[in-house]
Specification:
This protein is an alpha+beta fold and 552 residues long. The protein has two domains: 216 residues, no CATH class; 197 residues, no CATH class. 29% of the residues lie in helices and 22% in strands. The chain is built from eleven helices and 21 strands. A six-stranded antiparallel sheet has the order 1-4-3-2-5-6, with helices on both faces. Strand 9, helix 7 and strand 10 form a beta-alpha-beta unit. The longest helix has 29 residues. The chain is globular. The termini are far apart. The mean pLDDT is 95.
Length: 552
């Protein structure tokens, strides 16, 4: 049996290798999605697809097990050194949405399958109805782009050029997709080579035993943490504004947590029916939200890997937004993830009230397709991942203008946007009084004003325009999000949080995220902290008097 020191050496080598794969990928990426937002993950898996070390992009973490299980089912008798599989299918491979393309390659030591190297990354365009593929109002997955079940793109180190041509023929941005695909495959192959070197040093058997020990250790740690919880049942629900198609119907996400005799289950059966629009979730995304929330509520020092799956029970109902069936669209899954995470955290709060957290401002994305081709020599497609703010928690104010919860992405700098695309960022800053008041306030929303220098199609995918982020323990809600087109013109109009809009050169639009909810009674806020908020312009004098009972 492998010793504890070797096990930790293997774990640390995997962690370092993932950082190396990540670094080389984003430095080689063509699209701003990769090299600025870093919307991707690189991982090492055991021979069954079990994740050993979680990537920074946490919501990808549970996906790989589903994907590799399908690869083994389809190709288990025909996997060889030099093979590589590609897949972007939410139903056949567990991917978040069609724009996320996965590459997985087996790691062989002689004739022994030791594990897999894998990566998932968002692609600039994989076809479908909208430029950029992602949609705010798709009604079936076929509108969201080309679907690839798990298929070989490399067989015994020989590339299937026909398959690559097929993928690129379905893209409006083939050069970006080709560049990102090749960088991603190279990062995946790097993972294979480095783990093979590790096997040469320690022996394949020792490496596989270390994988098993790491998975078992994570399961034991989580099981012990769950066992310390009191028995009980708690439920919570939350609403998204709409599904992007039925605009007048809010969509309910519900979770019931049950703890008994050291066992824990998460029941999502009371969530709304499967949505017509693209906010549906597959089980891999539910798992990501649960493990993220559970680790945060129990002990953030717990390190996720797939060994933890044995500790948690999931209960679903068929054909719901938390367990959709094909061909339901899924491209706006991230806003749904964020709402579900807030709901799960609320349901967990009675078990660990000291770790309760107010609602975040969610996460969103925006796509601009430039009709005159964009700037010379640059892509005609601008894709941005946009954050918001965290809610306040016990002892901590919420962070402002950041990606929240499971995404952990980067906001594209305005210098990059103005250099590469025909737009001007007229304003970019925090929004005063957007934070939910509390003993520990929420983070502040941010706003950007864009001016278009060419005609464009703008697709915005977001939430929280109708239902603001809740406060907890007496805290107040954060501000709602806003999206305003034709800004400053006679036909200025505030729109729903998600939609598709045709805009002309010279026009402006305003994008404003939601603010984080507050934690605790605002009247208990430390006066020195409130004075700093006022001095920094985060809180106005009027809000200090109204929300915090400050008198001149």
């Amino acid at each position: 049996m492998v010793d504890a020191i070797t096990t930790q050496v293997v774990r640390n080598r995997i962690g370092s290798l993932m950082q190396e794969m990540h670094y080389h990928f984003y430095r080689s990426g063509y699209s701003t999605i990769i090299r600025e937002s870093r919307d991707f993950s690189c991982v090492i898996l055991d021979r069954h697809g079990g994740l050993i070390v979680a990537p920074p992009m946490f919501f990808h973490a549970p996906v790989y097990r589903h994907l590799v299980a399908k690869i083994l089912l389809l190709h288990g008798d025909d996997i060889a050194d030099g093979d590589m599989f590609v897949c972007n299918h939410p139903y056949d491979g567990g991917l978040p949405h069609v724009s996320d393309m996965a590459f997985v390659a087996p790691i062989m030591s002689g004739s022994t399958l030791v594990g897999f190297a894998g990566s998932i990354a968002h692609k600039a365009d994989v076809g479908g109805t909208n430029p950029g593929s992602t949609s705010a109002n798709a009604t079936e997955i076929f509108q969201e782009g080309l679907l690839l079940p798990p298929v070989k793109i490399y067989s015994r180190a020989v590339c299937n050029d026909d398959l690559e041509r097929l993928i690129l023929a379905n893209s409006r941005q083939p050069e970006l997709v080709r560049g990102d695909m090749h960088a991603q495959m190279a990062a995946t192959q790097m993972g294979v080579a480095r783990i093979r070197e590790t096997c040469e040093r320690f022996g394949a058997a020792a490496v596989m035993e270390a994988f098993a020990a790491l998975l078992a250790g994570a399961a034991a740690e989580l099981r012990a943490a769950v066992k310390a919880l009191p028995d009980g049942e708690a439920a919570a629900e939350g609403f998204m504004d709409n599904d992007g198609v039925e605009l007048d119907r809010p969509v309910r996400f519900a979770c019931t947590v049950r703890v008994k005799n050291g066992d824990i289950s998460f029941d999502f059966g009371n969530s709304d029916r499967q949505a017509r629009g693209p906010i549906n979730l597959r089980p891999s995304m539910i798992e990501a939200c649960v493990f993220y929330s559970l680790i945060g509520a129990l002990d953030p020092r717990l390190a996720f890997n797939d060994g933890m799956r044995d500790v948690v029970k999931f209960v679903y109902a068929p054909n719901t937004v938390t367990n959709a069936s094909a061909p339901a669209p899924v491209s706006s899954y991230q806003a749904a993830n964020q709402k579900l995470t807030d709901v799960i955290l609320e349901a967990l709060a009675p078990f660990r009230p000291e770790r309760a957290l107010a609602n975040s401002g969610s996460s969103g994305a925006m796509l601009i397709s430039w009709k005159d081709g964009g700037r010379p020599g640059q892509p005609s497609l601008q894709y941005e991942i946009l954050g918001s703010a965290y809610g306040g928690g016990n002892g901590n104010d919420g962070a402002s203008a950041v990606a929240t919860h499971t995404s952990n992405l980067h906001i594209t700098p305005i210098e990059i946007l103005e250099t590469e695309f025909p737009c001007r960022i007229v304003e970019f800053g925090l929004v005063q009084d957007s934070c939910g008041a509390g003993e520990f306030r929420g983070g502040l929303a941010f706003r950007r004003i864009y001016q278009l220098l060419q005609d464009a199609t703008v697709v915005r995918r977001y939430d929280r325009a109708k239902f603001p982020p809740n406060g907890v323990a007496g805290g107040k809600p954060g501000s709602r999000s806003r999206f305003v087109i034709h800004l400053g013109a006679s036909d200025e109009r505030e729109t729903p949080a998600s939609g598709r809009y045709e805009l002309r050169a010279g026009e402006r639009f305003l994008l404003q995220s939601a603010g984080g909810g507050g934690y605790g009674d605002p009247k208990k806020r430390d006066r020195a902290a409130l004075e700093r908020d006022i001095a920094e312009g985060y809180v106005s004098a009027a809000s200090a008097e109204r929300d915090y009972d400050v008198k001149d």
